[in-house]
Amino acid sequence: MASIRDNARKVVCIGRNYAEHITELNSARPKQPFFFLKPPSSIVPPASGPVLRPLGVNLHYEVELALIMGQTVRDLDANDEKRAMEAIDGYAVGIDMTARNVQDEAKKKGLPWSIAKGFDTFLPMSNYVPKTVVPDPHNVELWLSVNGEVRQQDNTQLMLFPIPRILAEISQCMTLEKGDVVLTGTPKGVGSVVVGDVMTAGLRVNGMEVGEARIEVKVQQKGGRYEYKAT
């Protein structure tokens, strides 16, 4: 199949879907799923790194289970679990990189924070993982380490909103198309990385590592004209 990046028309990301992550960022617990977008241009395919840290940015990692859509979904009923799961073609692991200081400032001022999520290289992704490898996406272990030290490690059982509810909420607002990527939220343990750090992430099913889901990517300094300045 073509690469995930080549097929994705949009990347839809669910925020605040793990209770302990909400607590660590002092955020409010949502009453329903909310989402934001990352551009497909932010995707880093496997072995195509590095992640580039823009000048002045406090760069955070957030490991997530990614859904790769295989069918068009529009106005889905949240109770139609069968339809929701049939619409998923496969899975992947993604690291939702975030310019945390940019995001925090935007939140305080009531401004959009697309820039905090949308820089080039801000979404390293694993290879495609077939559905047959992940019989139950609500019971897999996500993990991420930095320089060999485990920083995130939790089960998707802890998601506040299950996948059918997520797809329903998105599709009632915008059509999900074949190839689109949906990030399902990050567990606790998010934190910063600096230039020279190496992030490794992956997925375990029944305690067994899924080889296709492994990511290893280094952080390097971004060149160019951008430098973070308060708005």
Output the keywords:
6-stranded mixed β-sheet; alpha+beta; 17 strands; 231 residues
Sheet with most strands: strand arrangement: 2-1-13-6-7-10
Element order, helices and strands?
HEHEEEEEHEEHHEEEEHEEEEE
Shape designation: globular
- Strand tally is 17
Q: Give the integer mean of the pLDDT values.
A: 95
**End-to-end distance:** 42 Å
Rg, nearest Å: 16 Å
Major pleated sheet:
6 strands, mixed
Helix tally equals 6
Q: Helix amount, in percent?
A: 10-25%
Q: Which residues sit in consecutive blocks of at least 5 with pLDDT less than 50?
A: none
Characterization of the model:
There is one protein chain. The chain is of the alpha+beta class and 231 residues long. It contains six helices and 17 strands. The strands form four sheets. A six-stranded mixed sheet has the order 2-1-13-6-7-10. Strands 4, 11, 12, 15, 16 and 17 form a six-stranded mixed sheet that branches. The protein has a three-stranded antiparallel sheet with strand order 8-5-14. A hairpin with a 2-residue loop joins strand 15 and strand 16. The protein starts with a helix and ends in a 10-residue tail after the last strand. The model has no long low-confidence stretch (mean pLDDT 95).
